[in-house]
């Protein structure tokens, strides 16, 4: 059985950062300020995408946190779905007792829409945003495996 060559952590980091494309609604960024290696999240920081999310009244934020374990040659990931609200054009995370829903692998479609009244009881959909969580997760997981590393979901414990 042939063994795969493993990329170093800086090369793995570069390949994961390269997953981000300007036309995608998510960004892969450095996670060191949060105490982790990388974070993939919806692009609330980009004014153009923030405007889209605000217009469709998006209600769910999706985040993937990544940590590299060089000793085991694995990348641990934790996915989180959080409910958000909008106030004065800015989003905020709603808190209901916890810090968000931490889950193994989210298989949801995040949606939002804007409607216009067309009569007394008629509404027409003007704008819609639809995004599958797999569209963010799968390119990251493929990049991890291509780099010769393993990918492990973390549900309960810390990354």
Query: How many domains in all?
Result: 1
Compressed to H and E, one letter per element, the order equals: HEEHEEEEEEHE
Shape: elongated
Mean pLDDT across the residues is 85
Evaluate the radius of gyration: 18 Å
The portion of residues forming beta strands comes to 35-45%
Helix percent band:
10-25%
What structural class results from the helix and strand content? alpha+beta
- Distance between the terminal alpha carbons, to the nearest Å? 31 Å
Please give the number of β-strands: 9
Low-confidence stretches: none
How many helices?
A: 3
Most strands sheet:
7 strands, mixed
List keywords for this structure.
159 residues, alpha+beta, 40% strand
Describe the structure.
The structure is a single chain. This protein has helices at residues 9-17, 47-55, 134-146, and strands spanning 26-30, 38-42, 60-69, 74-87, 90-93, 101-103, 109-117, 123-132, 150-153. It has one domain (9-153). It is elongated, with a radius of gyration of 18 Å. The chain is of the alpha+beta class and 159 residues long. The strands form 2 sheets. Strands 1, 2, 3, 4, 5, 6 and 9 form a 7-stranded mixed sheet that branches. The protein has a two-stranded antiparallel sheet with strand order 7-8. The protein contains 3 helices and 9 strands, in the order αββαββββββαβ.
